[in-house]
Each structure stands twice: as C-alpha cells, then as structure tokens.
Amino acid sequence: MKLIGMLDSPYVRRVAISLKAMNLLFEHEALSVFNDIEKMQAVNPLMKAPALITDEGTLLIDSTLILEYLERKCDPSVSLLPKELNQFTYSQSLIGIALTLCDKAVQLFMEYYRRPPEKQYQEWGDRVGRQLRIGLDLLDQQIKVNEAGYLVAQRMMQADIVVAVVLNYLQKKLPQYYQDDVSDTLKAFSSMMEAKTVFTALQWDK
Ligand SMILES: N[C@@H](CCC(=O)N[C@@H](CS)C(=O)NCC(=O)O)C(=O)O
C-alpha cells in the first residue's frame, strides 16, 4: 500500500498513525497538494490528500473512507473502533467533533495564511473561528481520559488518534488558538499522545 500526502495534514497523519497502530506495512510518499501538483495529479487526479493506493492498485481518497478500508484489512485484534455499541457511539461522537475541528482548523489556516490579506473574508473567518472554539469546548466537556491514558478503551483507538492529531495541528499551525482556546486537559492529553512512539515516528515540522 502507498499513502500519499504530507504529515502536516491532520487527515494524512491520522491515516499514517492508524496504519502503524494496525501493524500494516505501507510506503509513504509525502507529496504536497500545493507544491507537487503534477506528481500529485499523476497519482490522484483530484489532487486531494490523503490518497491511498491499495496493493491491488485501487485509489482511495478521504481519510474516513481509507480508514474504513483499513479496518477491514487489519487483524481484528488491532481494530481502532470499539465493538460494543455504546462505546462505539461515544467513539464516533468524538471522532465527529475532532474531524469537524480538522476542517475548521484547515479552513482558518487557509483563510489567514494562504489567502492574500486583501481577499480575506472577515465574516467567514469569524464564523470558522467561532466553530473551532465551540468544537474545542465540546471536546473538553465530552472527553474523560481513563487510567490507561486513553479516551474510549484501555488502548489507543481511532478517537485518540484523531483528537491528538488535530490538537497537534492547532499547536503548530494556529498557535494562538491552541494557547487561548485549548483546555489544560486537552493540552495534557496531546502531550501524552505525542510522546508515544507511533506519534514521534510520524512527526512533522511547521
Ligand atoms: N474529508 C477529507 C479532507 C481532506 C482534505 O481536505 N485534505 C486537504 C489537505 S489537509 C486537501 O487535500 N486540500 C487540497 C484540496 O482540497 O484541493 C479527508 O478526511 O480526507
């Protein structure tokens, strides 16, 4: 399998960390959706990241769809989703909040750091900033780190990965939001997760 995309994308990083956590072998091609357009288009005409090329040569796009595929491919003992319904529902609710935070954080970064200042749309930026804060509050209210240091089970699951990955994205790309709007509980959780081997192996620079 080959994973395409840069680790500064929280979506790419969540897939890369999940692949490792699932003990699945993969190659990683760190192509940028902005700076490697031609190479990116050659593998993924839609120019989105992440993209996964399966061993059979099928192109999969969208982190959630890729992870659904990987869930079927991995050994059930390393599945990152709980089997029990209540636990699964809780996990899906956290993943939903964290993925919305990924969307909002990436949108904010694009608005303030990629769009020329004269073309920025203040109302939109304010709305997205508000959604980001609401999402962080929701997450803070809903998480409870257990005695093993995880959110839904006694080992690392998809909810842990995606929550940690978006917090790390905020810390590096939107440090002011991280400093002002991320609770101490979430910051502590982020540090704990980022210290794990599977995370340090897949770190990225600003
Ligand atoms: N819902 C998608 C979002 C992926 C996404 O937005 N990726 C960004 C990079 S962080 C991208 O490909 N941007 C280029 C584009 O949208 O054209 C997923 O979960 O994979």
UniProtKB/TrEMBL annotation:
The lineage's top-level taxon is: Bacteria
Which Gene3D superfamilies does the UniProt record give? Answer: 1.20.1050.10, Glutaredoxin
Membrane-crossing ranges are none
User: Which is an annotated Pfam family here?
Assistant: GST_N_3
Q: Which PANTHER family match?
A: GLUTATHIONE S-TRANSFERASE OMEGA, PTHR43968
Name assigned to this protein: Glutathione S-transferase family protein
Domain GST N-terminal: start-end pairs = 1-78
Please give the InterPro entries that the UniProt record associates with this protein: Glutathione-S-Trfase_C_sf, Glutathione_S-Trfase, Glutathione_S-Trfase_N, GST_Omega/HSP26, Thioredoxin-like_sf
Q: What is the lineage of its organism?
A: Bacteria, Pseudomonadati, Pseudomonadota, Alphaproteobacteria, Acetobacterales
